[in-house]
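Take a look at the protein record below with the fold in mind.
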Amino acid sequence: MKPLNRWVLVVLAVVLIAILLVFWSRRDQPQAPSVGDVASQQETTTPSQAEEPVTASVLFDFDQSVLRPGETPKLDELTAKLKGRAFDGVSVVGHADQIGTDPYNLRLSGQRADAVRAYLVGKGVDAGSIRTEARGEREAVTGEACKNQGRKRIECLQPDRRVEVTLAAAR
């Protein structure tokens, strides 16, 4: 056999192996549905609903459980997103900063969650679908960053004084 023929066979073998490897690696990937399958599927959510989580985070002033006027638009936007959407419930979780005793902060975070719940109910959200929880200072987002801030400590701890609202999507 001539050397040129050998090289041609080697190149063909390498190309064939490469093609087989490509098809072999794609065998576990999901296949696109056929045209008939697409027509028979019912879509329950729009693509924007499926991709976009419905959440809001509302901040509170130091030692307060009254909603700030500047924070209510976040809740208004959330309630607008809830309209016409199927969901299992709404989770409202209150938090506090690390200033104060654990029992006090737990109670304050619960009052904050209750204030957000009352606002949502006032905007038409079913009270039975809202679950509130108080976590006190356990899940601080500032960590140790504010420890040596002196007088600016209260300002530094602002992100910890929050209520997080999350929509539990329908299954």
Observations:
- Helices lie at 3-25, 35-40, 47-51, 72-82, 102-122, 153-156.
